[in-house]
Amino acid sequence: MNIFINGIRGKMGKVLKKVILESDDFKYLGGYSSKKDEANLIYDDFNSIKEKIDVIIDFSNPKTLDAMLDYALINNIPLVIATTGYSDLELDKIKKASNNIAICQSYNMSLGINTLIEILNIASTMLNDFDIEIIEKHHNKKIDSPSGTAIMLANKITNLLTNRYITNREHSNNNLRNKDEIAIHAIRGGSIFGEHNVLFAGDDEVIEIKHTALSKDIFAKGSLKASLFLLNKNNGFYTMKDILGGM
Ligand SMILES: NC(=O)c1ccc[n+]([C@@H]2O[C@H](COP(=O)([O-])OP(=O)(O)OC[C@H]3O[C@@H](n4cnc5c(N)ncnc54)[C@H](OP(=O)(O)O)[C@@H]3O)[C@@H](O)[C@H]2O)c1
After folding, report:
1. Of 61, 152, 162, 210, which shows the fewest CB atoms inside 10 Å?
2. Residues 130, 203: one domain?
3. Cα–Cα distance between 131 and 110 in angstroms, integer?
4. Do 164 and 203 reside in the same domain of the chain?
């Protein structure tokens, strides 16, 4: 299966290329870096490729979205979009494009986090009286905050409980915690790959559900699993839940 990587010079692009080269099932066709030519974003690299691109996997920056979607739509290529930090408008563009091509988009490609999300289904419903807080930790080079994964977890809980999430407690209710608010706390330091901890604090008891990424390979492997899933799909919007068998 022929893979093209958008974001090849980035940390994840390099990890994904390594995982592809170690695998018998995938072939690395090429990758795009914005350093080459901002004006001709993507096209130069794509056009120099002679073999058919089966899937484009994107670990880059939201700024590459428009050019990538245009190229994928014109050439009918499925997309695995792993980049984080999209605005609502950009997420709408992705969903609109999925009417014509197959797209899997997820702020976290790992099996563990996607399982954690399903555990949250049960915990949030059973412990809906508890105070829920999310603590995420990442390396000091991460450009978006809070992490896309933390937003994904918060959205899951708020959809279940009709609560709201905040990212800065300073301005809320004279610093007192509102009963119905979930706060995301973003910690940045060193080379932490990624930690997400969902804390349920009740009267005299606390539950913490924690995921730790020990290597970036988990995201690369998840994105390749998603590529396999998309291969024979004509169009549609998919998440990791679809890819992991509708847990
Ligand atoms: N969904 C998941 O499971 C998952 C897991 C890990 C990371 N991520 C996300 O994947 C993305 C890449 O992560 P990373 O750790 O590889 O980041 P990184 O090391 O900063 O790499 C970012 C990549 O984007 C490219 N890029 C293209 N246009 C850009 C622009 N206008 N500004 C900045 N960079 C631009 C950069 O390289 P050039 O400058 O050479 O183009 C580089 O290849 C991030 O959004 C991150 O949050 C998602």
Report:
1. 162
2. yes
3. 26
4. yes
pLDDT digits (tens, 9 = 90+) for 141-195: 999 999 999 999 999 999 888 888 999 887 656 678 888 899 999 999 999 989 9
Could you give the number of structural domains in the chain? Answer: 2
Cis peptide before 62 (omega within 30 of 0): no
Specify the length of the chain in residues.
247
Which of 17, 93, 142, 225 does the annotation list as catalytic? 142
- The three-class DSSP label of residue 76 is coil
* 142 catalytic per annotation: yes
What separation in Å is there between the alpha carbon of 159 and the centre of ligand 1? 28
Same domain, 83 and 133: no
- Domain residues for 178? 111-212
CA of 147 to the centre of ligand 1 (A): 13
4, 8, 12, 238: which to mutate for ligand 1, most atoms within 8 A of CB?
Answer: 12
Same domain, 16 and 137: no
Q: Tell me, what CATH number does 40's domain have?
A: 3.40.50.720
Token pair 């804390």 is found at 199
pLDDT at 47: 62
Question: Given the structure tokens 């409980």, which residue do they identify?
Answer: 161
